Amino acid sequence: MIDIQGVSKWYGAFQVLNDCALSVRRGEVLVICGPSGSGKSTLLKTVNGLEAFQQGAVTVDGVRLDDPRVDLTRLRSRVGMVFQHFELFPHLTVMQNLTLAQVKVLGRSQAEAQARGLIYLERVGLIDHRDKRPAQLSGGQQQRVAIARALCMDPVVMLFDEPTSSLDPEMVAEVLDVMAGLAADGMTMICVTHEMGFARRVADRVVFMDEGRILDDAPAKVFFAEGGVRSPRADAFLNRLL
Ligand code: ADP
Ligand code: MG
Description:
Helices cover 37% and strands 25% of the residues. The protein contains nine helices and ten strands. The strands form two sheets. It has a six-stranded mixed sheet, sandwiched between helices. Strands 2-1-4-5 form a four-stranded antiparallel sheet, with helices on one face. It starts with a strand and ends with a helix. The model has no long low-confidence stretch (mean pLDDT 94). The structure holds adenosine-5'-diphosphate and magnesium ion. Magnesium ion binds next to helix 1. It is found in: Cell membrane. InterPro entries: AAA+_ATPase, ABC_ATPase_HisP-typ, ABC_transporter-like_ATP-bd, ABC_transporter-like_CS, MetN_ABC_transporter-like.
């Protein structure tokens, strides 16, 4: 579903991604972890063409991102992205947040978009909140709306960038539960997260990044195994978290 080959990126003289390669199969759940500043967000954003890079190639569902014929807006609509700060439109209701891009980008009718919106609001347990504005919801609820909004676009893959990092602790589980449900239903997912309990339970594979490089790429079972085969830096990182 996703294939990243030899991707390198520089900001001036600073190399933020160093020869990164990784692939994600359909239905696979990949967790990316690593210290702050290691390039996780930058790598994730290369997948939907939000970050340009100087070397390498990224293919999403058979489409090469550097193909000049690629319609990036269209491609992005098929890659769901959920960020740390739930970027809902504050002046729109929950339902309007869900229908806007469906109508504008996918050309669905309002009725069709709303029907789809209801399905995913039900899915994230927020059907009764459809007429509220984001500010009337808790952080966890807002993040679940952001997930529902992404799902409305029929994504082929969902990207999560620390979706629970800015939430109060009691709201983390409700968001991780929605993500685990998606994974169980076979969604292809890349999740940047420090929630190692989630990674252990839900991820098929774990990638560890440091200083722009992928140092580890292993099945979750192997990565988390007692005395598992990990890079020394991943070891140190895990020991600090646990
Ligand atoms: P992570 O998500 O792992 O915390 P990021 O991908 O956000 O890391 O950032 C990786 C590195 O790139 C950091 O050192 C950050 O300061 C640097 N960086 C990110 N964006 C820019 C930018 N626009 N210009 C210069 N440096 C940047
Ligand atoms: Mg980041």
